[in-house]
Write a structure and sequence with these properties.
single chain, alpha+beta, 6-stranded antiparallel beta sheet, 2 helices, 6 strands, 19% helix
Length: 96
């Protein structure tokens, strides 16, 4: 991104009070205990098993590990996971 683009994003998020996840295309992750996980702004499911879920993000991957994981809903770029969640790991892409 160009310097002007970075400055414009910084200015617009500050002046307009926009959330950082919207301005910078970041995922919004909501964890309820260790049983429910909601992820917004993902780019798709790459791998899924009852023990591991890998999601594509704009700038990397999100890995969720646990037991008895199940995807309870997928609506566009929103996803809900249920099960016993033990770890959430963000892996940044080497291209950024």
């Amino acid at each position: 991104m160009t310097r002007i683009g970075v400055r414009l994003r910084g200015w617009s998020s500050g002046m307009l009070n926009l959330p950082q996840d919207i301005v910078h295309d970041l995922p919004r992750i909501t964890l309820i205990g260790d049983r429910e996980l909601y992820i917004e702004n993902h780019r798709g499911v790459l791998r899924f098993s009852p023990g591991r879920l890998t999601l594509a993000l704009n700038r990397g991957l999100l890995e969720i590990t646990g037991e008895d994981l199940s995807i309870s809903s997928i609506l566009g770029r929103e996803l809900a996971v249920e099960g016993r969640i033990s770890e959430i790991k963000f892996k940044e892409s080497e291209e950024t």
